[in-house]
Amino acid sequence: MANVIKLRKGLDINLQGKAAKKFVDVKPSETYGLVPDGFYGMKPKVVVREGDEVKAGDALFVNKAHPEVNFVSPVSGKVVAVERGDRRKVLSVQVAADAKQVFKDFGKKDVAKMSSDEVLKVLLEGGMFGFFRQRPYDVCANPEDKPKAIFVSAFSDMPLAADFDFVLKGQEADFQTGIDALAKVAKVYLGVKPGADKALADAKNAQVTVFDGPCPAGNVGVQINHVAPINKGEVVWTIGPEEVIFIGRLFNKGQVDFTRVIAIAGSQVNDPAYARVMVGQKIEDILNGKLKKAERHQRIIDGNPFVGTKVSTNDFLRAHTTEVTVIPEGDDVDEAFGWIMPRFNDFSTSRSYLSWLQPKKAYNLDARIKGGERHIIMSGEYDKVLPMDIFGEFLIKAIISGDIDRMEQLGIYEVAPEDFAVAEFIDSSKLELQRIVREGLDMLRKENE
Amino acid sequence: MSAIKKYFDKIRPNFEPEGKLHAFRSFFEGMETFMLVPNATSKSGVSVHDAIDSKRIMSFVVIALIPALLFGMYNVGYQHYLAIGEEAGFWAMFGYGLIAVLPKVVVSYAVGLGIEFTVAQWKHEEIQEGFLVSGMIIPLIVPVNCPLWILAIATAFAVIFAKEIFGGTGMNIFNVALVTRAFLFFSYPSMMSGDKVWVNGDYIDCINGVVNVDAVTAATPLGEAAANQPISASFIDSVTGLIPGCIGETSVIAIAIGAIILLWSGVASWKTMFSVFVGGAVVALLFNAASDNAVAQIPWYEHLTLGGFCFGAVFMATDPVTSARTECGKYIYGLLIGAMAITIRVMNPGYPEGMMLAILLMNAFAPLIDYCVVQGNINKRLKRAAK
Predict the structure, then answer these.
(1) Is residue A386 located within the same domain as residue A338?
(2) Residue B344 has pLDDT above 80, yes or no
(3) B329 and A CB contact within 8 Å
(4) Domain assignment present for A34
(5) Domain identity same for A438 and A387
(6) Are A369 and B41 in contact (CB < 8 Å)?
(7) CA angle B225, B226, B232 (to 5 degrees)
(8) Which of A26, A78, B190, B204 has its CA 20 to 30 Å from the CA of residue B336?
(9) Helix (H, G, I), strand (E, B), or coil: what is residue A237?
(10) Which of A329, A372, A432 sits opposite B45 (nearest CB)?
(11) Is residue A444 less than 8 Å (CB to CB) from chain B?
(12) What mean pLDDT is predicted for residues A267-275?
């Protein structure tokens, strides 16, 4: 029987447009793009040139600091563009897909008979290692580290997030192979929700823990904090459950297959449902014909409304993305006297509004900040939704003041920006907490280099 | 709705850097965000936000203060007619109080907001809402006879030296309204205590303006006790608030209504509020048992209803900016305020009102309390790492 950890702090919010448990069709794109920004904390070195022919599984770019870490093409075809932005930063490497896909052969392998080094070598070559993120700093992992453990959270409870139990259906064997491979590298901890699929709750070669509580209980950082908190000098790796399936496929089929099931959700989507897409697919093709007629401005988010990135239809699906959501932008609303109106259609944790009367109501929230940025005025707001043994408000203040020692003391190594997402949502001072935490982590990483 | 938007769009060019009214840009922006929720959308992090913001929070504190303000107006009239020995109806009493109190509210807001707008203009920042609350509290914690010019000076001093030089709302160490009161208390003691300040003896006449008559004397219950006289007010009077005292502080009932609003909406911390009362009650009980001076002999429940204890506990100890910010620290902070307030009352007859000094003192110690609580967390982490 798996260990159950009950969490009280946090907040589940109910947004309109949850994905129904069925599939809708997405037609393949003509061009696929691998976005280096999707792998945070890594400087890419592009190893292909425009016009090169690549197979699915050939490297498009590598990590400049660790050239053995490949980032591979999801499809076979011709490299059509290396898109660069300011200061020649690589924005995406684009491949025009062949009509008939050709896969690079990595050879089927039996994980049980492989050593740790052999597994790692396959992960590096097959472009899987890039999906690992490390704590501290929440950046791309370093293959030279010896991680204390690998953590996988097999559920997300962010608003409108994809349900991994549904995503997993039919891919249980690949998932288990992926876990077996990870277990060769380090001890694997798997966090699941109460009543999770049997394939998850009874997963072999992993220590399964059930996390029962509101959002952000599904955050891997929260789970690490409760199972085996990170101390200074330790490194743990994390990886998304869909990416564990990628790893499983690589060993079982001997080829790279970045097909993943994502949720297409949000109040501006006509028929919210799941779809089979490919990492690097064009957002335009994913959403084609699925959006409501735009009466107001719309915001497309690569991810969910809590931790996603605002994108345009010309962007490509990023590496870790498990859902694409579309909500109203709200920059054309012109609401009057919000500070005193009852605002029935707005959600608030504060009882100065009336949403406590309708706990089941699904809200259609837009992207407005709904207030000006202030110094932190109210106390204890963050603590209510941060189920970690960390003083969130004091950590944020330490980061704002750039106090490195204090950040370390207050446990910055244990957090990632996403752990502060719910706090950022409820913050009455409207501070950009995820950006602040990211800056703090980057500051420390630079300091400790 | 769109008419407001159109109007603002029409006059906006005047307030831009080249416009002829650019010196009032902060005022324009303040008014615009007051009437229209900004359409700005998030650029990083979460794409959706809770509807709560500091405008809403501050508005709810102001709403919570209104019962105390209205009752204070009535009581000013009541005490006046009681002192001059005339019969008067409810509306006459309330009307008298309204005319006596309203100028103080206006002066407090005009001076404080004037400084806020100036600073916002100067620092190119948005207007901060903090003074909406301070500006309402200030007239409620002064005696009715406090002259307007003194009130203006004290408010200006507090806003500039207790708030703006620290960086504005959210950065101040001391509660702004209490600094105003402390300034008045130490600079103009004769206007803040004694027995001549609590009841307005002036006739206010619509035609002739204010006609001054002899000052009316009336002592507050705590003033009487400090002078070793028996307290003339009954316990019931001190609960309803029909006693001489600062304008908004007398009625426990009106303050309780405010407390319910604050606690229900979650704006104030029940931990702080509750522990102030516990701290005060415990220390009052100890003094009841141990000492024989007149103030010490006031029963504990009466101690909590007299003077500014309730008002301080509900509206000023709970100020989130200047109070302890850790959940555990709030208990300690509240307990010490309650204990300190009663101790000052009893041990120092020169200051019959201890609440103001107690809260200001604990404002100074709140960061220390938080430091200790946070250090506990840090030590735990260090110990874990050493294992």
Answers:
(1) no
(2) yes
(3) no
(4) no
(5) yes
(6) yes
(7) 25
(8) B190
(9) strand
(10) A432
(11) no
(12) 95
In contact, B222 and B307? CB cutoff 8 Å? yes
Residues 6+ apart with CB under 8 A from A365: A15, A305, A327, A346, A347, B48, B49
Dihedral sign for Cα atoms in the order A154, A155, A161, A164: positive
Phi, psi (degrees; rounded to nearest 5) at A299: -115, 125
Is there a single domain that holds both residue A194 and residue A334?
yes
User: Within 10 A of A62 (CB to CB), how many other CB atoms are there?
Assistant: 21
For residue A176, being part of any structural domain is answered with: yes
Per residue in A165-175, pLDDT (tens digit) is 999 999 999 99
Select from A313, A342, A371 the last residue of a domain.
Answer: A342
Order across the sheet with A31-34: list the strands: A31-34, A90-97, A77-84, A53-54
Band of residue B339 on the pLDDT scale cut at 50, 70, 90: very high
Identify the domain containing residue A400 by its residue range. 382-448
Asked whether residue A53 is domain-assigned, the answer is no
The pLDDT tens digits of the residues spanning A70-80 come to 999 999 999 99
**Domain end call among A280, A314, A342:** A342
Round to whole Å and give the CA distance between A316 and A2. Answer: 38
> The pTM is what?
0.92
Give the Å distances, CA to CA, from A401 to A446, B293, B308: 16, 50, 37
What is the spatial distance between Cα A420 and Cα A412, in angstroms, rounded to a whole number? 12
Q: Are A195 and A330 in a shared domain?
A: yes
Which residues are CB-contacts of A301 (< 8 A; sequence separation ≥ 6)?
A266, A308, A309, A310, A311, A324, A325, A326, A327, B47
In a mutational test of the A interface, the residue from B34, B41, B50, B271 whose CB has the highest number of chain A CBs within 10 Å is: B50
Interval A74-101 mean pLDDT: 94
- Residue B382: its chain A contacts at CB < 8 A? 409
| Residues whose CB falls within 8 Å of the CB of residue A35, separated by 6 or more in sequence, listed in order | A91, A92, A280, A315, A316, A318, A319
Report which DSSP code applies to A62: E
- Whether A8 and A135 map to the same domain: the answer is yes
- Decide if A227 touches B, using CB distance below 8 A: no
Is residue A139 one of the residues assigned to a domain? yes
Q: Best residue in A300, A309, A379, A390 to probe B by mutation, most B CBs within 10 Å?
A: A379
Q: Could you tell me if A304 and A195 lie in one domain? A: yes
Distance CA B328, CA B272 (A): 10
**Number of structural domains, chain A?**
2
CB-nearest to B170 from A376, A380, A432 is A376
Calculate how close chain A gets to B158, using CA atoms only, in Å: 18
Alpha-carbon distance of A260 to A166, in angstroms, equals 12
Contact B63, B39 (CB under 8 A): no
